[in-house]
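HUMAN:
Just now I want nothing more than another pair of eyes on a protein record. I would be glad if you read both lines and explained how they fit together. I have put the entry right below:
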Amino acid sequence: MSNDAPMIHIVDDDPSVGLSISRLLESVGYQTNTFSSGKAYLASGDCGKASCVVLDMRMPQMSGLQLQKELLHRYPEITVVFLTGYGTIPMAVNAIRAGAVDCLEKPFPEHQLIESINRAIAQYEFNCDKLREKIKLQNRLQSLTPREREVFALVVQGKPNKLIGAELFISEKTVKIHRARVIEKMCADSLPALVRMADLLSIST
């Protein structure tokens, strides 16, 4: 098995389930590590090493949903695949809404889990790319002056230079200068590109 293979963490309070999933995923080339509870997993210090976490929905002390929330707070790029039991459909819906890639009801076909893991890895790679882009944009944003940031926020709202000037009590000519500097510093080649950057940076549009 390659050390470059994605790492999958399995969190399930049933050791036999964890071992079975681990063997299955390793047989198709993934690296795995298993944990018996959410608290043990968080205490391990290994959470950030995973591309995907396979979580049992119902576990003592800390449920799968609680662990998902904590993981996404710490590692927003990480992906989650849930394993659910009978009668947990509302919980599965909540998990998907919170960002889980899939919720598989036990017992599930092996190929279904592998397909879910493959989709989760693709999503993880997308998340990582998006996070790297956000960090790059945040660095560019830091290069803007306070006034340029104000102009940036108003430009991506679609407001014309004249109205921006009126709101900021500066001339239209000055707005044009700030606008040009914003575009240059943010490396935007168009207004739509600037709007996409603002969206990624959570700047109101």
Summary: The beta strands are 7-11, 31-35, 52-56, 79-84, 102-105.
